[in-house]
Design a protein that fits this description.
alpha+beta; 2 domains; nine-stranded antiparallel beta sheet; elongated; F-box_dom; F-box domain-containing protein; PP2-like; F-box-like_dom_sf
């Protein structure tokens, strides 16, 4: 036998199944035999996340696909699940699972009180509804996610997707009787940094902070480390709440909990859009952060 091309297609498929999606695509260009093997269902079954059948059952709109390869690349784009309160996709190069939770899927203190929060739609948002902060002095947003649906052996980062904008003009009218001053612009974000935290299923707790408007302002005097953030698009920013690693041994059950808060200063804050929370591999986050800095 002079080359691998003389191996049966089933053997080549078996070899390819131990590589990565990126390697399979590259090797499929080597020859006709490799292309046939690289397009086979057994290969792409191994590339798909182990949870994919369960996630397909939670889709809001069923997918049409003729092969596991086609399914894989369809899942590389965000797909809505759980009544359009979440989206999931897989990282194309590695097959790692990524998730985004909508603002509706989070626990927002006073989130259903229109004096403090409104639910609006924006063309540049990832979901039909996002949360618009009118004005609060107690900012608290909490959420949780089952680690069972994350990729084993993978480091993940939890990030809050936020945007500062001008507060609605009606703020002054709604709160005039309560003697709360009118917010003509984004206001209340310079007095105290916002705190971001993550707590793992085993109880490990991380907490960071950052000023939302003057993001370069140091937070060391507040007793916190500065959390990384990055600009994404259309004025949206992602602030990291923390990082954690999903065990590789399969014992990855339990809830990851995360929080964004600011109530220590007692100042009224307004003019903030909350798009949701992203949970994605840290390698992806690092790439985007580095690209943001170039």
């Amino acid at each position: 036998m002079n080359s691998m091309e003389e191996l049966p297609e089933s053997c080549i498929s078996q070899i390819l199944s131990f590589t990565t999606p990126r390697d399979v695509c590259r090797l499929s260009a080597v020859s006709h035999t490799f292309r046939l093997a690289g397009n086979s269902d057994p290969v792409w079954e191994k590339m798909l996340p182990v949870q994919y059948r369960h996630l397909l059952a939670r889709l809001d709109s069923p997918l049409q696909f003729s092969s596991k390869r086609e399914l894989y690349f369809t899942l590389c784009h965000p797909n809505s699940i759980d009544g359009r309160t979440k989206k999931f996709w897989i990282e194309q190069a590695t097959g790692k699972l990524c998730f985004m939770l909508s603002a509706r899927d989070l626990n927002i203190t006073w989130g259903d009180d229109r004096r403090y929060w409104h639910w609006i739609s924006q063309d540049d948002s990832s979901f039909k509804e996002i949360a618009e902060l009118v004005a609060v002095c107690w900012l608290e947003v909490r959420g949780q996610f089952d680690c069972e649906f994350l990729s084993p052996g993978t480091a993940y980062t939890v990030s809050f997707r936020l945007k500062l904008h001008k507060s609605p003009l009606r703020i002054g009218r709604i709160f005039r009787r309560r003697f709360i001053r009118f917010f003509p612009r984004t206001d209340g974000w310079d007095h105290k940094p916002v705190k971001f935290s993550v707590t793992t299923p085993c109880g490990d707790h991380q907490e960071y902070a950052r000023y939302l408007r003057n993001t370069d302002t140091p937070v060391g005097n507040e007793g916190y480390q500065m959390t990384p953030f990055r600009h994404v698009e259309e004025g949206w920013m992602e602030f990291d709440a923390g990082r954690f690693v999903v065990p590789e041994d399969g014992d990855n059950s339990g809830m990851i909990k995360f929080c964004m808060r600011e109530w220590e200063g007692g100042d009224w804050k307004g003019g903030l859009l909350l798009g949701g929370v992203k949970i994605q591999p840290t390698s992806l986050v690092n790439e985007r952060t580095n690209a943001n800095q170039e």
